[in-house]
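User: Can you write out an input/output pair for a complex, sequences first and structure second?

Assistant: Here is one pair. Inputs:
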Amino acid sequence: MNSFEEVNYFVQNGHQDYLPHISIDCVIFGYQQQQLKILLLKWKGLNGWGLPGGFIKRREPLSEAAYRILQEKTSLNDLFLQQFHVFGDSPYRVGERSTREFTEKFGLEVQADNWLFERTLSIGYFALMDHVKVNVQTDFFTDDYQWWDASDVPQLLFDQNEVVEKALLTLRLQIYHQPIGYNLLPEKFTLPEIHTLYETILGKELDQRNFSKKLMALGLIQKLNEQRSIGAHRSPFLYQFEKEKYEQALKEGIVHTY
Amino acid sequence: MNSFEEVNYFVQNGHQDYLPHISIDCVIFGYQQQQLKILLLKWKGLNGWGLPGGFIKRREPLSEAAYRILQEKTSLNDLFLQQFHVFGDSPYRVGERSTREFTEKFGLEVQADNWLFERTLSIGYFALMDHVKVNVQTDFFTDDYQWWDASDVPQLLFDQNEVVEKALLTLRLQIYHQPIGYNLLPEKFTLPEIHTLYETILGKELDQRNFSKKLMALGLIQKLNEQRSIGAHRSPFLYQFEKEKYEQALKEGIVHTY
DNA sequence: CAGGTATTCTGTAAATTTTACGGATTAAAG
DNA sequence: CTTTAATCCGTAAAATTTACAGAATACCTG
């Protein structure tokens, strides 16, 4: 949705195609330079950062909507995506953007009763993805994107900081019950890489020997007969996830401590 | 909401006061005769059972809406209540009730475009309560209620069986991270009682000695200097929760296995 | 009132899991 | 060849979890 006509139609008549009062916000986690990152979009004119998001089509299953929105923003579809919370405790969530400001910034005439300015609950989803595979798409309302350090997210629009906080908490809790990494790491990775990933997500040190022992004992990863060259040091072996075991662990859950 | 006038106003004009397209469904767990129970309401005329639920007022924070709805149905307000999932994968969730049938059963004239018959997502909450404290209120649409065995819930309206399933799963997962029992047991309870409660929720046997050892070690419960008389057998001692420890565990979480 | 019955209650040893910890190996650079 | 910085590997101690049985109690019955 990029042309003025498309956008104008969406603003004026979107409520015919989309459910009003409900939006989807996506917290997209990536992993880069040993840092957990979150993808944010910059609102044109507003000079503020926000989460990628969108609305649900009237005849579209909720989960499909989330996938579609994510696909639109990242051009990715093979990913881990999970609903985690509904936010709607501040009844005037959207009130901050005044209609006048909206008109000035975007050149779109909107009335005070425009559907986009009504109260909107937001369903939070979080996604994990290998950031190098992501091809971020901005749209009419946004003109920039950036991967922000998860522990250093700027002030966001509306109550989205709360959304990010909750996503992080959920991710950290989840890591104790489900394997995580398949969508955040390249297909082949080294022990130090996955080790650092877990340390990063959990925000604490994990004994490297015990960690890999555990991972191997669970049968989640498999050692390959290849090594990566990392310059002036011993070459680490490459590993890959055991797809079947991984899927099984996703479904059935695991109990561990790392 | 019980009089015909009130209800008619709600049906015809409710969208002015409530957010359309979004409802709240409550899975209310109780504990009775060593069984985990779920509170269901019987729809008048429809001869079908469903979850207590309601809509969110336009200016009402989401969490307040959930509490209000629960309060309306059970007359209780001191309880454990938690959002757990949004359901909306079948776009025609409400389509099953035809407007004609609705008119016949309830004597309310509704047009096909009535707000209640539009697609509605449902936010699932689950609550835990001591069933003896509950004073169930039926309303215009429902004329009966019953506590059903959690493992033996009848076919419900719409996709509510899925909602119940997910609530149970969430409860079972949660019990590993949070103390549960405060809202399901009377203030003073015996070891065998709480033991059976946990066995019931988890659906498996727990060694009684190890279980109480663990509970005591966590400092969650406190032995009282009173006993309950249970007839022809040894009188069990009464216990109560350590409120502070319990609250703390609720916030910070616990890691255990029981 | 003595014996029977059904329930509560308590401790310890074995098995398992988690934790702690250091030194040998390797790849390239100097 | 030496140095440097990183990977890799195993074992012993500590902590936790599991398994398990018998004594005590309260009322009922004969």
